[in-house]
Amino acid sequence: MPILALIRKLLKTLNSDGTPGQVAAGIAIGAVLGLTPINNLHNLILLGIALITRVSLSGVFLGWMLFIPAGFLLDPLFHGIGERLLFETSALTSLWEKWYNTPVVALTNFNNTVVLGSFLVWLVLFLPVYFLSRVGVEQYRTHLYDRVANMKFIKALKASKLYKVYRLFKPDMS
Amino acid sequence: MKVFRLKAIIPLSLLLVFSGLVYLLLLDGIVRLGIEFIGSQITGARVDIEAVEARPLSGRIVIRGLQAANPNELMTNMVEIEELVADLRLAPLLQKKVVVDTMVIRGVRFGTPRTESGALSRKEQSTGEPARRVAAWIRDLPIPEFSFEGLSETVDISSLETDSLATVIAARGIIAAADSFREGWTAQVQALNVRSEIDTARALAGRLQGINLRGLNLRRINEIKNTLSSANGFMRTLQRKGEDLGDLRGSIETGIGDLRQRVVSLDDTRGIDQDYARGLLRIPSIEAPDIGPALFGEMARERIQPALNILDTIEKYAPPGLDPKRKPGPKRLRMAGSSAEYPRRESHPRFLLAYGEFTLILGEENRPEEYLLTINGLNSDPEVYGRPTGFTFERTSGGAGDRVINASGVLDHTSSPSRDSIEVSLTGAGMGKVALGSLGGYLDLGIGEAGISLVRTGDGLDATLRWECPEVRWESTGERSEIEAFVWQTLSSMREVSVVATISGTSGEQRFTVESNVSSELSRALRRQLGEQIDRAEARVRSEVDQRIREYESQARAEVAAVVSGIEGRLSELQAQYDEARTELEARLKSITDRLPSGIIPPSCP
After folding, report:
1. pLDDT tens track for B29-51
2. Is residue A23 part of a domain?
3. CA distance A67 to chain B (A)
4. Rounded to a whole number, what is the distance in Å from the CA of A39 to chain B's nearest CA?
5. Are the CB atoms for A103 and B95 separated by under 8 Å?
6. A42-76 pLDDT per residue, tens
7. Distance CA B64, CA B107 (A)
8. Closest Cα of chain B to A94: distance in Å?
9. Which DSSP symbol is given to B150?
10. pTM listed for this prediction
């Protein structure tokens, strides 16, 4: 199965980065997948960036999962922001018109209120999410990691087959 | 620290290529589902496709076995297409725009049977919206009923409620308005208080009359000066009051004019009530302009509806204008939001079919007729494209049938209001049957010629439909009353039928006329046979209605006359008293000032 071998090799390579900064960058990038509607070009591009740079893919996955509920809850806010920018700010109309008629950029769906609003909110939140995540990961590793690792439940989990599957996605701590 | 995972780039690229290949393998299915979904949204019924072949490198799409169900007859296809080949330009796809250079369609059939129902499992709110809008427009065309039942009934309008008659309602309104007007002007006259000014003027005139100019001393001179000053000041007050009285008179005259106008309009309202009562009796109109729409109105309505459906659908998807357009966002688990579209003159329309050539097969299976439909510049943003859409539809040499349909049209949505014009002619074809209402029968128009000429500018329509049928047949299906038998006898002797229907106007103000040799002939015959009877019945109805409304009408007229006379009398009396008091005061003042030395007269006096 050459395809499976290819994926296995890819994941092994990807999981080799796990410093707090890399995990935090992964969470900040993953946040875009949760905050904005998934089926859009910018998500594909950012996922590609996450794959070829040395950010933590576990972090990306974690960020994605964490921000999905926020995305659903904040949709009315995103819509409101997009509405204001797309329909009520005449100074920006020429910019949107140019984007809408530019090859490839037209595929971004930034002419949709929710996509534009959520993407802009993600841009604003990117650095705060990165720094907060970085502090959080450092604190976790300093104060909680050993205690969590010694918990019976975690030990039992580590012995299970499920954990072996999970390891495929776990960042290398070395 | 290294930023990139260099080792990951090659496997990632390979994975990307692999994903691309998988996407290409699924592309046919994706295109098929997309067309089926969009097509069903436009037509309001299922659109099914047998196979799609998409060639992304050349931009060619081949669709085979397309069936679009008829939303009004779900077990029938509105259209069935054997094969469609479209050549797309690839670059505009990067702007999410579909530009089709050429499209060739072969084997188009209409009205073929379906094996499965064409009903949609879930309809969107906007699905089939143009068809519903046109149906509403057409439904509002005024088509009278063609029935002679009313003639056999005795004239009895006991079901007519007096209180519901427009004249009675209007008369009551006039009485109430007159009462309220009387109260209003009485209050205004009281508030103006002219009477007290008149009394003051008379008192002042009396004081001036009592002034003795003999034996003047300084004290007397000062008293006279003060009296003259106050009389002079009061003259100005009196003048203002006179102006106020004039204004009040003007507004009251306007009010009186309104009341009188309402009384005059009772004559029109009486006419409405008489028509209404006549309608209750269902006395048929025997005038040709009324018989025409009653006989052929439904037929004209049915024939014009498909053309309007097509135009409305095109109008919906190709509106004029370059303004940003708001559309609902794509359906997804998350909120859809709204999507903006920004048409730009230098760019492509969202959809463009530069040239399309469609071979269509119409008619019965054993006598097929081949037609060629060509379309130029069908697009979604006409102002961006800058040219109108044109089409021609003509019979080619193929096929065995005798029928010939030719059509051409120009749909100009490049500026607002949009202007569509269509010409259709049909020869050698069955013209269908016309149901003859209560007469119990059908008119089979047989083989003939027909044509539609239609111009639509914005919401306004100007359409003419005509039929020329040299050999018609009258099919009897039921029993008839004596009158209906007479009508049937008149009609069934006719062999040639020509009909010209015109539909014009805007939504809510449609006008509809039908001229036909049938209606003219029938009108003449009915006038001979029934004219006297109908005139008698109508006179009875008029008399009955007049009797019901007479009392209310008289009350209203009397009330208005009383109010007007009261107001006019009171105002004239006030005006006369005012004029008299003012003239007297002026005369007294003049008499005193004329006799006084000029040094004594206060400077404010004239």
Report:
1. 988 998 898 888 878 889 999 99
2. yes
3. 13
4. 9
5. yes
6. 999 999 899 888 888 888 988 999 999 999 999 99
7. 10
8. 9
9. G
10. 0.61
Edge-first strand listing for the sheet containing B433-435: B433-435, B441-444, B473-476
The answer to whether residue A52 is domain-embedded is yes
Which of B3, B5, B89 would you mutate first to test chain A, the one with the most A CBs within 10 A?
Answer: B5
Domain-located, residue A173: no
The three-state DSSP-derived secondary structure of B336-385 is CCEEEECCCCCCCCCEEEEEEEEEEEECCCCCCEEEEEEEEEEECCHHHH
Q: Which chain A residues have a beta carbon less than 8 Å from that of B329? A: 112-114
With an 8 Å Cβ cutoff, are B332 and A39 in contact?
A: yes
User: Is A135 a domain residue?
Assistant: yes
Could you tell me the CA-to-CA distances from B483 to B153, B229, B490, B524 in Å, in that order?
12, 92, 11, 14
B94 and A107: CB-CB below 8 Å?
yes
Angle (deg, nearest 10), helices B266-281 and B517-595: 160
Q: Which residue of B has its CA nearest to A95?
A: B342
Residue A140 Cα, gap to closest chain B Cα (Å)? 23
- Token pair listed for A142: 């300093």
Of A53, A83, A103, the CB nearest to B3: A53
The amino acid that residue B104 corresponds to is V
Structural domains in chain A (count):
1
The percentage of chain B sitting over the pLDDT mark of 70, rounded to a whole number, equals: 90
CA-nearest of B35, B61, B62 to B48 is B35
Q: B342 and A112 in contact by Cβ < 8 A?
A: no
* Segments in B164-264 forming alpha helices (H): 166-192, 194-209, 218-264
Domain that holds residue A137: 2-167
